[in-house]
Structure formats: C-alpha cells, structure tokens
Amino acid sequence: MSAGTAKIAVRVAEVVDVNELVKRFKFVRRDGGEMPTFSGGAHTVVEMRDGATTRLNPYSLMSDPGDRSAFTISVRRDDEGRGGSLFMHNKVKPGDEMVISYPVNLFSLDLRARKHLMFAGGIGITPFLAQIKQLSHAGGNFELHYSVRTAALGSYVDELTTAHPDRVHIYYDDKKQAIDLATLLDGQPLGTHIYVCGPKGMIDWVRNTALDHGWPETAVHYEEFLAPQSGKPFEVELAKSGKTITVGEHQSLLEAIEAAGVDAPYLCRGGACGQCETDVIAHEGKFIHNDHWLTEDQRTGCNKIMPCVSRFEGRRLVLDR
Amino acid sequence: MTKFNFPPSIASRPIWGTLEPRKGKAHLMIADAEGAEALIDLANAAPALLTMAHLIYLPKDTGKRYSDALAALKPASIYVGPSYDAAESRIQRVLSDAHMGLQIYLAGTEGLMGRAMSAALAAGLPLAAIQTEHRGSVARRMQCVHCKGITEDVTTDPFVCAHCGLNLFVRDHFSRRIGAYQGVCVDAEDPGEVPPQKELYS
Amino acid sequence: MTLQFNDETFTGDYTFRNSKEAIRRFPFPFHEDSYMYSVNLEPHKPGPKGSAYEHRFDVDEHYLSEMKDRARVLNDDPLRCQSLPHMDLAGWDTLELIMTSKAEDYPDLFELHRDGNRWRWVNKPMAIDQSFTFLDTSTLPCGPMEYILRQTQGDFAILDHRENNLWMDAGMVTTQADWSLDFDIGMNFMEWHAPVPLAHQLGVFERALKFLLNLQQGAPVRRLNWTMTVNPNLDTSPENYHKWGPEKTTITPENVGEKQHLRVELQTLWRLPRSNALLFPIRCYLIRLEDLVTVPKWGRRLHRVLRDLPVELATYKGFIRNRPVIVEYLSQFDDGAPTSPGCFPD
Fold first, then answer.
1. Does A195 touch chain C if contact means CB atoms closer than 8 Å?
2. Chain C contacts of B189, Cβ < 8 Å?
3. Under a CB-based contact definition with an 8 Å cutoff, are residues B144 and B168 in contact?
4. What's the ipTM?
5. Which domains are delineated in chain B?
6. Who wins on pLDDT, C159 or A291?
7. Chain C partners of A267 at a C-beta cutoff of 8 Å?
C-alpha cells in the first residue's frame, strides 16, 4: 500500500483567530467540487511546504461531517514544538494553495451507544465539534464535559453552550472548577460509551477512573495525537533502499525517510494507527519509543519501531525499509 | 468432576474462562446446576464480592445439592428457580435497571451462559463486562438453521430438531446474538441416510 | 450499447442462460493452474471496458431476473435482510454510494437528481421513480439498505468498524454460497470466517483484517472467490439446504456439462464515509461448464485446479462427491498445453 491516503488539492478560504492561541482554517477544493463526507472524529493530514522542509501534521476535522462545501480545522500554536503549528499560524494566509488528505477516522463514535459521554480538554475539543454536529442531526444522546484554562482560551465554548445548553458543561481551570468524574460515571445507562480527547494526563485519568468503576476498556475511547519529539540527530541505514540517512534534531524518523525519497506507509503520524510500523534489522543503542501502538513485548524485543514519533540514540540502526 | 476440557476448535466457538473478581458498581451472577461450584470458588477468592451480588441460580437436576451453600455466601439478593424461562422476567428486570459498571458472572452449562449472554448484550452491556465459566453438563443449545427453532440441552450428534423434526448435525459455529450453536440437516443430500447418533465428544 | 435483459429463472425450471457476450466477460477467477487461499486484494479501479470490472457496481443481462429472484427469496424468508439498529447511517451510506455510482456509470439506465436532501431516483429497467428525503427513512417504503439492495445485484454485508475489528451488523443475502446472515449477523471478522478450513492456519484472515481496518475512503479494493454449484441456483442458502442439497445427487457424466456451474463471487470492499463502516458487496456470477470450456484456456485451467485442489477445500466448497465426474468431464478439454498467465481469455 502506498503512503498515506488519497489527496485533495485545496485553497485556504478563511483564517480566523479564535483566541490568542488558536486559529481556525477553512479549506475548499481548488477545482470547485465537493469535499467528501466524513464521520465525526476523523482527521486530515495537512501538508506544509515550509521552504526545504515538508511537514505532514494530522488535525481533527471540526466542521459538520455532512457539509460538503469545506473542511475546517483548528490549530493551537505550540511555541515549543517543531514548527508545524507556527507555520500554520504565521505563514498560511487566505488564498494559499495546500494539499490535505482524505479523511481518516481513528476516533469514531460507537454508533451502538445508548449515550455518548464526552470529555474534552483544551484543543482536544475539535473532534467533538464534528461528532456533536453528526449526533445532533440524528437526535443522538450525548453529553460533553469540556475543561478549559480560562474563559478567554475556551475555544468554541459560546457556540457549544448556545446550541446545547443542557448537554454541554464547561469547567474553568482558573476558577478551580473540575470535572466530578466519579459522580458522573455512576449511574450511566447500560450501553454508554466514553470518549476523551485532551492532554495525556486527562486521558489517563478518565481511562483509569472508568476502569476502577467497572467500565470495560471497550467502552472507553480516546484520541491523543502525539507530536514527534525533537532529539539528538541520529543516523539510520535503510536496508531495502540501500540508503543511509540522518534524522535531524527537529525532524521525525518518518520525515527523514520520506525526505530521502523512500515511500513509507502512514496514516495518523501520531503513534496511534500502526500503519508505519517498521522492522528493525540491527541496532546498537537504545530506542526512544513514543508511540502507543507497540506492545511491551515488541518494545523489549527491540525489533519494531514507529518512525512517525519514535527516535533512537546509539551507534547503529538498520531498518527494513 | 465438573470441569471439562473442550477440544480446540474454530474461532467462533466460545472459549469459556474462569471467573475472577472484578471491580464494579454492581455484580450480577447467573448460574445453573454445577455452575454453583464456580461461584463458590469465586466467593472463596473474594468473599466480599458475593455480599454485593444479585445471584440467580437454577439447580436443574442437582436438586438441593448447592442451594444452601449458595445462600450461605450471603449474596445481597438470591433467587433459586426451576428454569431459565421462569427466571427470564427477573433477569430482564435486573438488566433494565442496570448501569454501566455492572459486572456479570455466568457459570454452568453452555446453554445457560449463551442465553444469559445474549440477554445482557441485547440490554447494551459490553461483552467485556461478561465473564463465563463452564461447569457440569456439556449439553448444547442448538439453533436449527432451517426452521430457526432452538433445541435445548442437546447431548448427541446428530439430533432431531425439537421443532421441525429434521435430523441435524452439531456444528461448532456459535452465535453470541442467538446464544446457540448451529444445527444443519445431516441428510440433506441423501434424505434418510442418517448416521448413528453419538454422544458429544465421544 | 444498450443492455438486453434476460427473462430467466434461478429455481424450478432453471432457465438461466449466459449469452455469448456474458460468457466472454465472465470473471474467471484463476490466474494460474492451481489454487490456494491468499489475501488476493487489489484496488477496485475501473477495469477493462466490457469486463465485469468496468464499473463500480456491474449491471448485466441478468439484472431484472436476479431482482425478481431476490424479491421471491425475501418474500419467502424476510430474515435474509437484517440490519442491527445502529447500522441505519451505514444503510444511507450504502444507498448514496450505489445511487451515485450507478447514475454516473449507467446514465441511460439510472438517474439521480439531488437538491440538498431532496432526492429523486429513477431506475428505468425496474420502472421505479422515487422521490425521497435523504437521511429520512419515513420517506422510503423500507429502510435505505433494503430499498437500494432490492435494486442491486449481489449480496451485501455491512461491517461496523470498532474495537480493532469488523462486525457484520447488517446485510442482505439471497445469493450466497451456503452461509446464513441470520446466524452470522453480529459476528466479528474472525468469527464469521471461522468455518473456512486451512486459511486460518495460513494467517490469511489476520492479514486481511489488518489490511481492511486501514481501508480508506475513495480507495475500494476487490478480490474473487469461487465455489461450485449444481444448477444455476443463486440461493444456495443453509436455510434451504435440505431442499437444494438433493440436486447434488443428480449429476451424471452425461449432464455434468450442463448442470454443473462454476460460481464466482466478485467481492469488493468500500469505506463508507458517514458511518466509517465497510461495505462488502459479494456479487455472484454463474457459468455452466459447457459454456466455460468454450474458452480453451479456461477449460484447461479449471481442469487442473479442480483436479489438484486439497480435499479439505473441495469438501468445504461442497463438491467433493461430484469432483470425479467434474474432473473427468473437464479432462476432455485439457490437452496438456501450457496456459498463459492471468485470468482473461487469450
């Protein structure tokens, strides 16, 4: 299978400042045609051509899944990151031509659910915006608990509370408001599914608390896109293609493979989907696994790596790519 | 000996487990006949668990052998009844009242576990919240693929469908939704040529 | 080219026939002289003109008669069409995919007019002209999946994607190779494939599932499967096995060329956009052996494949008892000459 998914050539139709950290981008097709429909929770991979550097970052689609006129995403600026969000914030302007991928959903609703119980933290709200639009059309039963730092940084709080005053609950960190999870988990009807998207700590807290309350893991869904971490540059031999490449400090292993012209499969670029899993042929050194795909056995066995988010420190790494 | 080692089979055949205490907000236990032994073992491992449990027990042909021992485990609520059909409305009532955090423990024959599992799934409980342990008879609950009628407690292969009368052979293909194995006409291609009946696993 | 639709039956007097054109375009499944399970998935891209792969959903000369046979089977047994409650959105996805594809691919046969959610569907061969509101089931005579599949050749399963698995939670099945939707509905990928011999040990299903879980919108795939059927009976269901099973005993050296059919399933898989489910159409094509051997390459190759097939597979595919007669018949058409690679006629 070739890398990624089908691509869509788009034009940036609109860039809106949502608040001091978040910008919203609207994409329409360059050929004037319709966007594909998608399911709430899907993401698109945005290609960023930043001089000599190409970045491919996944962003959740937040627009109405049934609206075929445009896709919208929201990007939170990360001043400490590797530059993708800064590129979107500082360089992308209305009228720019870009390429994005077909929608891929790794965080879909379980449509059997009698009730959808959603937990969002910060920019983790975006997939829920699309899911809530999808559920509202179908009269779906949902409840959102959304935690934000301050009122000024509460992206889409007004839109959500206006449209769904009885279903949306907002918690402000600066007012010391916190989700009372234990109480919430008690008394939910059979067939309720939990969804959580936000910082790692929040995801772990919701998952562990639910487990403690007797909820099976299959009823708890989460999405956490891991951004590739920067690190010391390292050298890699690609056995199949016969190339030796260097992974830069702010580059991911996957990006370095792609920059060398080697076709490598991917979907999420965030350590979640498993698509880019690569066999390790030889190594002298230690792996820095950042994904949540590989099992503990695979990690200790040192025979697999997820090049989208994981790195290596040592003398030699040979991959089957 | 009430435990039986089922031979390896196809992927749709359920693999029955061993009951283990689990964290939960409520605990529903349904057992028949020798399944009581699995609950007693569970209680030995976690005595407090039983005191929070709603226990539904169908002695079938074991008479009074286990009933007193189960009552002595002091479940929060206990029902001892003559058949699944008799207990069904009670089971439905418990399920309709239930919330997430419920853990279900099934023990005994495949027929009992299949039926109760089917009811719990239909009520919206995730499969992962249901544990099972086989004890006692290896009789099966069979659905006739032709007339859709279900024959309980089948112990031979082939067997006669209790509804349409066709001679059916016993497949290992199992439907969790129906809670039964599939029975298929054994003499479809050569009507009347029915192989001799054998006890299951003989 | 305007299609001429046959008036034929798939039961009773079995008047089903393939025209010369239908024989030429038959999706012969063997690309070499032997057969074993494999994950033989390839992109479902529009194939050679005139072939069964030319369009996304093939409509051929059997269309109207197959739809009549489907209505008959559903009338006898409504359980052949089922959809678990959460699959309604996937049903609309299915309706949308088929209506838009057919209207684009066969503009002389089908029309779809859309004004927002107000849709009008015209199926000229079946004389249907239906206005309805997209996503509003009350505006159709039945559920969206049932509605469109009563107008579409082939069986369909719709697979819900969750828990890293695929669950067969809806479908319409009236032209099946001996499996029961009513029994299998609600099963996951490994469970409904459980009865297939050998393939599990080969790891075929693990690989296929992994591939399908990553199947993307806009990138459908296809594969062919096959079995053998006595008489052109589309509905070889387990439900009616006691009724069609005895027909297997009617094969003789004299009638095998006429009565014995190769049954091929063109299976495609599609990611559905709104529900994130997978659509799994299983389109059945039948050809009697005496028609098949009019293509010399196919006669030679089918002889070699069936002769050398492992016993387990011949048993599972249900023709072990007739294999000697079939192989003997086909041997007349195998002169031992080498065959060219690929499935198409020389």
1. no
2. 245-246, 248-249, 321
3. yes
4. 0.94
5. 26-134 (3.40.50.80), 140-199 (no CATH)
6. C159
7. 214
